[in-house]
């Protein structure tokens, strides 16, 4: 049986940590940045842990 290919879109958007959690970039940092406060921009710029139900799907796309 052939190998499963990694989903190209998923590998650009998610990464798996050493403990197996799936990390994603928080939404909302693409535009209208002059309106947002520095505190809000700092919070949005951090990576976020994906919900367990979503993480299961993403791990299959990443082949992990």
From TrEMBL:
The record's annotation in InterPro entries points to:
Ribosomal_bL35, Ribosomal_bL35-like, Ribosomal_bL35_CS, Ribosomal_bL35_sf
- Which GO CC terms are listed, alphabetically? cytosolic large ribosomal subunit
Q: Which GO terms describe its molecular function?
A: structural constituent of ribosome
Identify one Pfam family in the record: Ribosomal_L35p
Which Gene Ontology biological process is one annotated for this entry?
A: translation
List UniProt keywords, sorted A-Z: Ribonucleoprotein, Ribosomal protein
Q: Which SUPFAM superfamilies match?
A: L35p-like
Family, similarity comment: Belongs to the bacterial ribosomal protein bL35 family.
What this protein is called in its record is Large ribosomal subunit protein bL35
Where does this protein come from, organism-wise?
Answer: Compostimonas suwonensis
């Amino acid at each position: 049986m052939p190998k499963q290919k990694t989903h190209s879109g998923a590998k650009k958007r998610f990464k798996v940590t050493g403990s197996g959690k799936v990390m994603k970039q928080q939404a909302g940092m693409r535009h209208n940045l002059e309106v947002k406060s520095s505190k809000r921009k700092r919070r949005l710029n951090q990576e976020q842990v994906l919900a367990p139900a979503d993480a299961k799907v993403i791990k299959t796309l990443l082949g992990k």
